[in-house]
Amino acid sequence: MVAFPPCPPEALAAAEAACGGTVDLKELTNRRGSAVWKAVGPEGTVAVKIGYDDGVAATLREATTLAAMGLAEYEAVSGSYDGGSWLVTPWFTGPSTWAVFTPTREGTGGREAALRGGADLCRSVADLHASGWIHADLQPSHGIHTPAGVRLIDFAWSWREGEEPVSGFSGGIVHLMAPELAAAVARGDGPVTPTRSSDTYALAGVLWTCASGGWPLDYKAAGIDRKAAGPDGVRDAIATGRLPFAPAVWPELQDALRPALAAVPEDRPTAGELAELLLKVEP
Predict the structure, then answer these.
(1) Is 3.30.200.20 the CATH number for 9-90?
(2) Are 210 and 253 in contact (CB under 8 A)?
(3) Which member of 48, 71, 109, 149 has the greatest number of CB atoms within 10 A?
(4) Strands (DSSP E) along the chain, which ranges?
(5) Using 50, 70 and 90 to split pLDDT, how confident is the model at 226?
(6) Which domain of life does this protein belong to (predicted)?
């Protein structure tokens, strides 16, 4: 396990300014050169993220993206320290999409709430697309379900339509990568350009994973040993667009998701249309 780095004084000072005084720091995650804390103070709560080693550029990118978006609910403070970069953002209170679906995965109910939560996540992605942005790294933990609606997080790879592709982007988490992105990465086209359609593919994959606990494609049925193939081999298989879907554990929901997981981008619904499909599913 990688030791949790200390919180830089500059980031700590920014967190204390935002929270109205001394904060308690709770370690949350530390991986791939990015560490995150929850900072709780007398007048508020924020998230503190630092980038070090390979994570410096990602934290800087996310800070730049949040500033360009200009959304009040994502008001952020950022900077650099000796050895890395830091970012302080509002703390969104609520469960992740993965947590919203936990009762359904455990077979204890909650399907109606999961469908509402899934539709809310789709609408949040649709709103992002309407503003001209692509998230490009949707994952089960990247949507927080607050009383005011779903708030997306982790914008390090997000891209504004019409601008140059983000240098170094390689398609996101491989199991949620749309076939056209996987094919572009396999060809060495980089930097790869995400689209609204590839976001919708990942969105449907996230919801499939949250409902079933497994990835949406059935590698075993396709004769693929994931360990032997490695990430590149899995990616190349996804690029064919011919892998079968994993067995359904909630057929009605997963049938609604299948169109968004189509191999051909033009055959997929939009994120907003996917929300409507989910609301038609019987709990």
Answers:
(1) yes
(2) no
(3) 48
(4) 24-31, 34-41, 44-52, 77-81, 84-90, 133-134, 143-146, 149-152, 159-160
(5) very high
(6) Bacteria
